[in-house]
Write a structure and sequence with these properties.
- This protein is of the alpha/beta class.
- The protein has one domain: NAD(P)-binding Rossmann-like Domain (Rossmann fold).
- Helix content is 38%, strand content 14%.
- Helix 3 packs parallel to helix 4.
- The longest helix is centred in the middle third of the chain and has 22 residues.
- The N and C termini lie far apart (34 Å).
- The structure holds NADP nicotinamide-adenine-dinucleotide phosphate (NAP).
C-alpha cells in the first residue's frame, strides 16, 4: 500500500488531498497543525500538532511514522497575506518565509529517512512565485516566499536524485479556500474547488518519477515558467 503524508492538512487543499488519496485506497496521513478532529471524525488518519516551523513537532511526526516507508510526501502547509511596497510588514514577511520556504525544507529533512528509491516529494508553491510570470508586481512577502520555495525544490531535486527520490513543484490553481476568501478583487476572479485542485495535483504527482526533470506544474498539467 502506498503511504502518503500531507502537511497543512487541517483544511482546504490539504484536507482534500487526504480525502482523495484515502478514497483511492492509499494510506493517507494528515499532518495537521491543529487536532484534525474533523478529519478524524471522517475516519481519516490524523497526526495532530504538526507545525512546519517547529522541529520538535516534526520529530514527533517522524516518530509516529516509525518504520513505515513514505512513498509520497506533499508539502502543502502555507500562509498568505496581501501586502504592498509601502506597507510591507517585515516581521509578517519573515513569517511567510518561515512557513512557506523553510517549512518544506524542515519537513523533508525530518522525513527523508522514511523515503527511499522511488519516493516522491511534491511542494505546493504558487504561480505568483514565478519570476517570468510576474506581470503585476505586489504581494511582496508571499511572492518572495514562494519564489524561494521553487528554488528550494530544485535544490532538493539535486540533493535527492542520487537516492532515486523525485521532487516536483506545484501550483494548485486559484482555489476557493479560507486562504483566498476575502481576497481583494476576488469577486472578479474565477476559482476552482479544492476537490478539482486536489484531483489535478494527484494527476501531476502520479506522473512524477525518478527521471522527471525539475518541473513547476499547474494542477491542470501546464508546465509553468520559473
Ligand atoms: N488557494 C489558492 O488559490 C492557492 C493558490 C496558490 C497556492 N496555494 C498554496 O496551496 C497551499 C494550501 O493552501 P489552501 O488554499 O488550502 O490554504 P488554507 O485553506 O489556508 O490551508 C492552509 C493550511 O496550512 C496550514 N498551516 C499554516 N501554517 C502552518 C504551519 N506553520 N505548520 C503546519 N501547517 C500550517 C493551515 O493550518 P491551520 O488550519 O491550523 O491554520 C491549513 O491547514 C498553500 O501552500 C498555499 O500557499 C493556494
Amino acid at each position: 500500500m502506498t503511504t502518503v503524508v500531507v502537511t497543512g492538512a487541517d483544511r482546504g487543499i490539504g484536507a482534500e488531498l487526504i480525502r482523495c488519496y484515502h478514497a483511492r485506497g492509499d494510506r493517507a496521513i494528515a499532518a495537521c497543525m491543529g487536532d484534525g478532529e474533523d478529519l478524524a471524525a471522517e475516519g481519516l488518519e490524523v497526526a495532530p500538532g504538526v507545525d512546519v516551523t517547529d522541529l520538535a513537532t516534526l520529530a514527533a511526526l517522524s516518530e509516529r511514522i516509525g518504520d513505515t516507508r513514505v512513498d509520497l510526501l506533499i508539502n502543502n502547509a502555507g500562509v498568505f497575506h496581501v501586502d504592498a511596497y509601502d506597507q510591507a510588514g517585515f516581521d509578517a514577511m519573515l513569517r511567510l518565509y518561515d512557513v512557506n520556504t523553510l517549512g518544506p525544507l524542515r519537513v523533508v529533512r525530518a522525513l527523508e529517512r522514511h523515503m527511499s528509491e522511488g519516493g516522491r516529494i511534491g511542494i505546493v508553491t504558487s504561480r505568483v512565485g514565478s519570476i517570468s510570470d510576474n506581470s503585476s508586481g505586489g504581494m511582496y512577502g508571499y511572492r518572495l516566499s514562494k519564489c524561494a520555495a521553487n528554488q528550494l525544490g530544485v535544490n532538493l531535486y539535486h540533493e535527492l536524485r542520487p537516492r532515486g527520490i523525485a521532487v516536483m513543484l506545484l501550483h494548485p490553481g486559484q482555489v476557493a479556500t479560507q486562504m483566498t476568501a476575502g481576497l481583494p478583487g476576488g469577486e472578479t476572479l474565477e476559482f476552482i474547488t479544492p476537490q478539482e485542485s486536489a484531483a489535478g495535483l494527484m494527476r501531476q504527482l502520479d506522473r512524477l518519477g525518478p527521471d522527471t526533470p525539475p518541473e513547476f506544474r499547474h494542477t491542470n498539467g501546464a508546465l509553468l515558467p520559473w
